[in-house]
User: Fold this.
Amino acid sequence: MFFGTAGGLGNWALCYLRGWKAHARAGSWSLPQVSSDMAEFEAITSLEAEAAGKVAASGSIKELDDLDVEFLGRKGKVTLLLRSISEQPADQRPAFGGRVNLAKNNIAAMIVDRRESLGTGESKARLVAEAIDVTMPGRFYDVGRPHVLVETMAQIKRIFIGLGYEIVESPEIEEYRYNFEALNYPEEHPAMDEQMSFYITDKNLLRTQTTAVQKRIMDQRKPPLRICTLGKCFRYEAVDATHGHTFHQVDCFAVDEHITMADLKGTLAQFCHEMFGPDTRVRFRPDFFPFVEPGVEIAASIGGGRWLELGGAGMIHPNVLAACGIDSNKYSGFAFGLGIDRTPMIKHGIDDLRLFMENDLRFLRQF
Amino acid sequence: MRVPVEWISEYVDIQAPIDELADLLTMAGLEVEEIQAISPDDLARSGGVPDSRDARVMLTKVTPNRGDWLSMIGVAREIAANTGWKFKLPEPQVEGAGADVAGQIKISIADPDLCNRYVGMVIRGVQIKESPTWLKNRLVMAGMRPINNIVDITNYVMLELGQPLHAFDYDLVQGHEIIVRRAKEGEKITSIDQAERELRPDTLVIADAGRAVAIAGVMGGFESEVTHTTTNILLESANFDAVSIRRTSKVLGLVTESSYRFERGVDPEIAALAAPRAAELMAELAGGEIASGMVDVYPGKKEPKKIVVRPERVDALLGEHIDPAAAVSHLIALQIPAEFLDGKIVATAPSFRSDIAIEVDIIEEIARIHGYENILETLPSFPLQGKDSDAGLFVEELRQAMMAAGMQEVLTHSVVDPVSVELSGYGEKILPLKNPLSEDVSRMRPMLAPNLLQVITRNQAVGAKDISIFEIGKVYRRTDTGGIYEYRSAAGAMVGSQWASAWSINRDTLAADFFLTKGALIGALTRIGVKNITVEPAEHPLLHPTRSARVLVDGEEIGILGEASPEAREKLDLRGRPCVFEFDVEKLMGLVPVTVGYKQLPRFPAIHRHIGVVLKRDLPYVDVLGNIRQSGGEIIEGVELLDVYTGSQVGADEKSFTLSLVFRSPERTLTDDEVNGVLESVKTRLASTFEASFRG
Assistant:
């Protein structure tokens, strides 16, 4: 090792370097004073001055590379100066060596710094040349979007799952007995006029209401129950802007001890808050559905004093519970069925129901 | 029903503006859809005579359980119950001046299961003429056309009291005898609309000594109807079975004011009020003389039903406490007799409320008058975990994956037209509707793909070129054993470029073809964790015979993939060459691994080699791939197809694949020599198996 205390000196040199850089930043290329305990050597000082001058004058990375070789290379000026150590008086040789080494660090630092500032300038020019017009359109592969009505159904599902409902599957081609008989429709009752059906066979029809799920579940399972199903329903009706032969419903029912009409109202209020906003109010109006008693029509306030009719609801009729082997003296339940199609119509101001299933991409891509 | 305000004012003392009254009725369950003001012109046009009376009419929508709301007194009664305003029923003053009616008509009910009651009266010496203005106007506002005073009175009393009436010409009733019976086999009647109708044996008729003179509860007969020469009237005020009337009405395709009311239940007690009420008006407006008394055959008389209501049940069902005394007063307001006895409410179902039979029916009435707006909002207190169905969860994931693969979701009809259905090739397995709305809406879809192709057609018709869509939904078929089968299917369809924007790049380089469609399908399936997907050539009626395939997972077929057949393109008027896929979602659900194993990341570098291999053109890529994997052994990590070439550089029956092979060992860094050795053996094997040669 050339310096017995290389570590210490290294640290010292680092401090020096920092000081120098501080000056450079302040706009001065002059070297800081060497601390007084270090002897001055004319040759070293002038070499440093020469290097400083040349580095400052250099205009390109290439020139700097050359200066690097000129001063710090294997046959460079600093190396040569160090070799002249033998010409120094013996007692000054350690100091001389230390000073040359410091000069070497100083010059290296100057070159690094200059390289940095030169480089920035050079790459700036290159970056300017690489400029693009960021306002031009992005190139992109079309993204798929959800269908607005299917997405509404997904949202409804999330709300009811959040309220503790289990989503179940139920067939669209339904049996007459589940769609009507089990729901307390008397034979040949005028209530059937509102449920004109498409038949596949005498016993099988396209469900007119998702309520058909009730007996399917209650035959298999016993209270407590909180069940939800949703999907397509079909009625024999001519198609216009607000009616179709196909529409979408969600049906929920809850059966347990102590289920009340207040629970029904609270549940629907909660749903409406989630779906239409926290200020939405729910209105019950007496209505008739054979499978509930009392039966009500549900409406939600949708601003401007208007009410959106959501569907029907009520307390499950004792006949329906009895047909499923559930004791209506011990258990009670509520049920409601909501039309889904009108929800996005209200939310987005859509004026024609037919748009949902015409699948014009210009419509679908708006959501 | 049309309810003239001026008319109901006769039965209830209305003390509020009409729009408030309408709101009140609506909130009580009798929805007032509209309040119409009838102009003098409209009144005159329909046979009325404009006068100074209130010409406003409430249009109500009556629920099927409330037949009692199909009369003026029914509406008035509801108003009175909700307001406490005074209600009064008409009290006919009948002076039976003539001889006792009993000697003048004979009435018998042969089929009492279909006729609860038959009341007959005779009015002699009437003069047939126009009705007075007030009567005509009330009928017109209620939606009926004035005919003559006798017919008008029967209609008027029906609207007033809800009891359908019929007036026969007494002298045309053979034997002055009425027999209520089922029709005889092959029996015919000409109804007052002059149509000859053949009657079914289950149809109830009103017959005289010789023939049917009316279709009971539906329409009178032409041969015994009241004409301008009629002088004596036989008045019928009867009560018929609701189901029987509904059947007859449906079979004959005849819905009348009378049948509409009987279907919904008519108060059997009102018959004996309606007859004298009509007789009174006939005496007054037609100058008739009423024969003393009435013939009243009443086989269906029932004792009023007592219903016991537990107050705690009222509270338990409604979710709040209702004072039993208040409940009793609500019921009494509705003219439902009730009292609070030994801790129970005992109510009597009135004859005009055929909808009230059990405890909950009474609870509903209590709740209605209590007001639903007063019901609290609470939530069920029992804790249950909400969750989606397994199918629902799977479909939601699949849906997201399809969208991520660039496809727009659509929603199409389940009931479709025959053309698209026939393309699916399901033939006898297609389920037709028994009663379609029209041919266009007549078949259950056995597949989704034809629907998607139709969506493409419709969008192409409005100028769309680049379309990529999918649907997940039910499809329906007949099973081999003739049963009905429905399951969830998923399908996608693509045509045109899939780049929404790609300036300076040829968008057509990514136009949808078989392979892009396959890529989207495999991409979506892989995203949801499906493994071991294979695609092999297979024909399908919807698809191009040499550009179609079936898709298998773990060797089990789940669906199809291919270009739409030329026939489908022509029949559905498609532009370009759309490609489709469809698979059975429920089958796939069972094939997706539940848990995904983790594979360690590679620790050693890979080595890449390209080869150009010339092969027979009909040799499937998958065979080449298998061959390479087999001869390359464990260190083949992957094979990627970079290019396929056919043309002058290779033979006419040849093609060239450019492949990129990736080699990697899990245990060490491979050497060039090692890889070169394996590559040579791969080539040798390809050459010996397929007579392959190599380029480059």
